[in-house]
Amino acid sequence: MGGGISVKKGDPNIYNCTLDGNSATLGGGGISLGAVSHAHLWQNIVCHSTVGGGIACNGAMTGTSMACNDVYSNTGGDAICLGDAGNNFASDPLYCFGNFTIHDTSPCAATYSPCLAVVGALGPQCQVTATEPITWGKVKSMYR
What is the number of other CB atoms lying within 10 angstroms of the CB of residue 9? Predict the structure, then answer.
């Protein structure tokens, strides 16, 4: 249970984490909240889990809360379960260059997230680069 994080009989605060590409055959590829857990999750990215879905609540108790999490593109589902405190969303986090930093126009950047704070472990590290259309002939002439 819990390919990235598994909680059973605990009361953890889990925030500003990035969990990407995890798996768990019994559910909760990203995070599993098991029996008698009272977890508080906010501002996390849980995406691309290959088995078991994003977040599973298998016995989580009242008092569990989830707010401002990006739970996106998880095989088996993107469930936000017990304790939805709002502002959770499912959007591509727009990683930079294959690492886990995010693009400055990411829905996880403070400017664009529904909670107006950075979501995930790493903030924006790359930005849009303006380009202008150019013909192949123009490119060749620059190198003659």
Answer: 11
Q: Spell out the domain ranges in the chain.
A: 1-144
| pLDDT tens profile 41-54 | 999 999 999 998 89
pTM for this predicted structure: 0.86
CA 122-125-129 angle, 5° bins: 150
In whole angstroms, what is the distance from residue 19 CA to residue 120 CA? 8
Contact partners, residue 78, CB within 8 Å, separation at least 6: 53, 54, 55, 71, 72, 90
Tally Cβ neighbours within 10 Å of residue 137: 7
Q: Is 114 exposed, middle or buried (0-12, 13-18, 19+ CB in 10 A)?
A: middle
Closest of 131, 118, 4 to residue 55, by C-alpha = 4
Which stretches of the chain drop beneath a pLDDT of 50? none
What the block records as the tokens of 70 is 């990006």
Q: Which residues contact 144 (CB under 8 A, 6 or more apart)?
A: none
